[in-house]
Amino acid sequence: MQTDSSFTFVLFGGTGDLSMRKILPALYEAHRAGMLAASGKIVAVARHEEDRAGYLQWVNEHVKAHVAKSGIDENAWASFVDRIEYVKLDLGKAEDFVKLRDALQDQSATRVFYLATGPSLFVPICHALASVGLNENARIVLEKPLGYDLRSSNAINDAVGEIFAEEQIYRIDHYLGKEPVQNLLALRFGNALFEPLWRREWVESIQITIAEELGVEARGDFYDNTGALRDMVQNHLLQLLSIVAMEPPHSMDSDSVRDEKLRVLRALKPIDPRDISKVAVRGQYHAGVIRGTSVPAYATESGVKTDSATETFVALKVEIENWRWAGVPFFLRTGKRLADRVAEIVVNFRAVPHSALGASALRAGANRLVIRLQPNETIRLYCLAKKPGEGMNLSSVHLDLAFDQFFKEGQMEAYQRLLLDVINGRLALFVRRDEQEAAWKWVEPILNEWAASGKPKPYAAGTWGPAAASAMLAQHGTCWLEEEN
Ligand code: BG6
Fold first, then answer.
1. Whose CA is nearest to atom 14 of ligand 1?
2. For residue 380, is it within any domain?
3. Residue 307: which of 190, 411, 207, 456 has the closest Cα?
4. 347-383: string of b/e by CB count within 10 Å (b at 16+)?
5. Given 127, 236, 250, 476, which residue is catalytic?
6. Is residue 101 part of a domain?
7. Is there a contact between 370 and 483 (Cβ–Cβ < 8 Å)?
8. Residue 244's CATH number
């Protein structure tokens, strides 16, 4: 499907890392697939390059390597590049915004301003756009991190909200654009099979893991001032949790979905600062080995303070205070330099209330649904079956659904889907302000407590994090489940 109308996509931070790695490759893929209206334009804005020729050279050098799936089709690339214009702009110069306005002459085109810049520039850019009237009939896209805590996030949202109405603001959480996350909605609300069991009566606990093998790469400086709680939990993990736990929405329109997610975020049991050590574990990686390669300790990464107390791993026990989920623990964890790259949701069902089949049934374990989001999208349902032969001995077996066996084509990267949604004016996969506030409110006691005292527990790179994370689950008679690939 092609975008509805003509558009002008203005990319602030046009020479930055995010533009090169994600945004321009995603726009190229959409273009190559014929999904962008023919008259749509991209206007890149940056300080560094003098003119369009210089900018296009930069794009040629830095973007092509990040076009993943299909490689580059030179004809499509040439016509994609034809869409790109360039405006050299210094944020401090009001006259440069006049120049930008003059470059955006097509009044009928949908205007998108994508701020792929640091958050400190969001408010100045919005003011400058408003000063030349460019905030009208436009959409603005804000990248995370949007703030550092509730107060700073509110300050940005207030300031941006004076210039753009909430329906004009698209806050990106790229996890919401991932195909498997969409599929989670399909699994839950497109099938009658799971929903009746998706509640406290049948579910014992739920785990959500986003594990990375990568370290902080070239972002040591940013990461050291951020940490895993702000970088991954406040946004991606709590968004996944809200989709796993939400009530069925009335429809898939933006506010129906976001209202239900918000209800979950508001129902998260507040964490009592005195209990933090019981329900939250933080870790920091030390030197170790991942897939046979030695990797250095976090504290020796470039840009990181040698005595840093920033967490690179978080594990949490979360509870939801409503009828559906009361008493069911949700265990969340995320970390850098872990043993594997995997994002997974594990739903542990309760054991049968009475085992007519004897002790082996209990030993073999209960049903479990494992939804793997990445690296390869699969759903695996564990059931018990009788082992062949004499006697009633049970064993755990599984039904597998590997999506790539069913759908060979049409997979879309998260950014591609989200950018098309912005151009088409679909807000459902973007975070509303009230959701963001609720998530900050919930994490804030942990942030404060961790800032005030103690240090993260060490873990060796290439492992599954500090032992305390396993001990937390052991208290609930369970353990983290690491699925085999
Ligand atoms: C980003 C974080 O939002 O998500 C990064 O800032 C993290 O630190 C990344 O590496 C993980 O995303 P994905 O899609 O690779 O799982």
1. 175
2. yes
3. 456
4. bbbeeeeeeeeeebbeebebbbbbbbbeeebbbbbbe
5. 236
6. yes
7. yes
8. 3.30.360.10
Mean pLDDT by 10 residues, the chain (485 residues): 81 93 94 93 91 94 80 91 95 89 86 93 94 94 91 96 97 94 93 95 97 92 95 97 97 94 98 94 97 96 96 98 98 97 96 84 86 92 92 90 83 92 95 97 96 96 97 94 72
Total domain count, the chain: 2
Tell me the residue range of the domain where 83 lies.
7-143
How far apart CA 381 and CA 368 sit, in angstroms, is: 6
**Atom number in ligand 1 closest to CA 374:** 16
Residue 323 and residue 216: Cα distance in Å, rounded?
40
Q: Which atom of ligand 1 is nearest to the CA of 341?
A: 16
Do 123 and 55 share a structural domain? yes
Q: What is the pTM of this model?
A: 0.95
From the CA of 137, how far away is ligand 1's center (Å)?
31
CATH number at 120 reads 3.40.50.720
Does 333 lie in the same domain as 260?
Answer: yes
Same domain (yes/no): 318, 464: yes
Interior/surface letters 35-51, b for 16+ CB within 10 angstroms, e for the rest: bbeeebbbbbbbeebee
The residue length of the chain stands at 485
Q: Are 437 and 146 a contacting pair, CB within 8 Å?
A: no
Ligand 1 atom nearest to 223, measured from its CA? 8
Q: Are the C-beta atoms of residues 370 and 349 closer than 8 Å to each other?
A: no
What is the tally of helices (H) and strands (E) in the chain?
Answer: 18, 17
Q: Is 236 a catalytic residue?
A: yes
